[in-house]
Design goal:
Helix content is about 35%, strand content about 20%. With about 425 residues, the chain is α/β, with parallel strands linked by helices. It is globular, with a radius of gyration of 21 Å. It starts with a strand and ends with a strand. It binds guanosine-5'-diphosphate (GDP), 6-O-phosphoryl inosine monophosphate (IMO) and magnesium ion.
Length: about 425
């Protein structure tokens, strides 16, 4: 059974937690898109782990974790992350971690360009994570990027990096930035390449060999449907295909080998960064922030919060072909008296039952709400569907139906045990 797991909203849906839960049944976990803009949180007991590039499956024993070809890898960030995990007692070695030789490398000029371009946009900024993701994917598409196999070969690195630093320094200087020292960048990346070399492999062949041996693969999506470069709220998106199709191109596993798609979504909506968010609401934002929740796992920024948007999740179910929904953070609504759910948008006298492609139009859309009675009791101790309050069950069933997908998991807390299979 090969499963693609995607975010059905604007990222931070709780993918890390659900990946950790589903990894129990899998042999291999593959990250297929994005870079260290992602922050996937997993709690094991009281210990918190935030994964940025390493698949969240790393926290379980005897699972192979793969960074696929579709990911952009910041080698310095990756080395730090591996070292950080080791300090926490997590084993990362050649037997449980593999890095694709064709993944693209994020370099310092990508990060600098990301920051400079954002600064130049002024009020129209995207609110990126400043991890260099856009410029790195830009170089990949422009066919001037460096791949992991370039990074781990000293001569090739020198030959390929030198003209890139030279060109990017000119761009950076013209944008008011400071030129990078080639020698410094080279030395730093050479060292990271040396560290990572033992992990590097042809992951496409590796995955196909594993499938021949009937391995079950879990594909770990990063970001969310509305941050997808094609299907998201462009230009307020990231630079990769975060939706289910990205799992095929980002890993080399073909579509007919995929068996199901799990869509993760919160019981409400959040977004970090700029761009339209039709159900954004101060009341629920204050409530969640007041509980110390909804601060970014990568940048620490407070996330924008709103009511559940079923127009968006229905659209996500359509684009990703979601078979099963994992609804997280149900417990975030435990104290709310009347819960609103957006069932359609209205703009200029017109009703929309899907998410308009034009972000400007979407920004003008006003939500049409349905209301649900809250349950006003804690759900975080519930162990089964039956133990959930009746109003919570009604709410979950309603948002699944409105999203046009089947309810698979309800999550009532960050821990593994706080997971209810429906
Ligand atoms: P991801 O990027 O999709 O992996 O999500 P993040 O880790 O960035 O953000 C999700 C946050 O919600 C994390 O802090 C998780 O620990 C937390 N979380 C996940 N599921 C639940 C849940 O059901 N209840 C609560 N209270 N927190 C949850
Ligand atoms: P996970 O995997 C939430 C957002 C940024 C910004 C936009 C572009 O943890 O769900 P980028 O740095 O990618 O160029 O930023 O995308 N963004 C995320 N928001 N969760 C993420 O990842 C995100 N990765 C990028 O905030 O709005
Ligand atoms: Mg996150």
């Amino acid at each position: 059974m090969n499963t693609i797991l995607v975010g059905a909203q604007w990222g931070d849906e709780g993918k890390g937690k659900i990946i950790d839960v589903l990894t129990e049944q899998a042999d291999i976990v593959v990250r297929y898109a994005g870079g260290n803009n992602a922050g996937h949180t997993v709690f094991i007991g009281k210990q918190k782990y935030v994964l940025h590039l390493v698949p969240s499956g790393i926290l379980r024993r005897n699972k192979l974790c793969v960074i696929g070809n579709g990911v952009v890898v910041d080698p310095i960030g990756l080395v730090e992350e591996i070292e950080g995990l080791k300090k926490l007692g997590v084993k990362v070695n050649r037997r449980n971690f593999v890095l694709s030789e064709t993944a693209h490398v994020v370099l310092p000029y990508h990060r600098e360009l990301d920051a400079r371009r954002e600064a130049l946009k002024g009020r129209n900024l995207i609110g990126t994570t400043k991890r260099g993701i856009g410029p790195a994917y830009g170089d990949k598409a422009a066919r001037v990027g460096l791949r992991v196999y370039d990074l781990v070969d000293a001569d090739r690195l020198k030959k390929k990096l030198s003209p890139r630093v030279r060109e990017n320094n000119r761009v950076l200087q013209s944008l008011g930035g400071v030129a990078l020292s080639f020698e410094r960048v080279y030395a730093e990346y050479l060292a990271a390449g040396k560290y990572l070399k033992p992990f590097v492999a042809n992951t496409v062949v590796l995955l196909h060999e594993a499938m021949r041996d009937t391995a079950d693969i879990l594909f770990e999506g990063a970001q969310g449907t509305f941050l997808d470069i094609d299907h998201g709220t462009y230009p307020f998106v990231t630079s990769s295909n975060t939706t289910a199709g990205g799992a095929c191109t980002g890993s080399g596993v073909p579509p007919h080998r995929m068996n199901r798609v799990v869509g993760v979504m919160k019981a409400y909506t959040t977004r970090v960064g700029e761009g339209p968010l039709p159900t954004e609401n101060a009341e629920i934002s204050d409530l969640l922030h007041g509980m110390g929740r909804e601060f970014g796992a990568t940048t620490g920024r407070p996330r924008r919060c709103g009511w559940f948007d079923s127009v968006a999740t229905r659209h996500a179910a359509m684009v990703n072909g979601i078979d099963g929904l994992a609804v997280t953070n149900l417990d975030g609504l435990d104290t709310v008296e009347t819960i609103k759910v957006c069932v359609a948008y209205r703009q200029g006298g017109k009703r929309y039952d899907f998410v308009p492609s034009d972000a400007q139009l979407l920004a003008e859309c006003r939500p049409v709400y349905a209301e649900f009675a809250g349950w006003r009791e804690p759900t975080d101790q519930a162990k089964s569907w039956k133990q959930l309050p009746a109003n919570a069950r009604t709410y979950l069933k309603a948002i699944a139906e409105l999203s046009n997908a089947k309810l698979f998991i309800a999550s009532v807390g960050p821990a593994r045990e706080q997971t209810i299979f429906v």
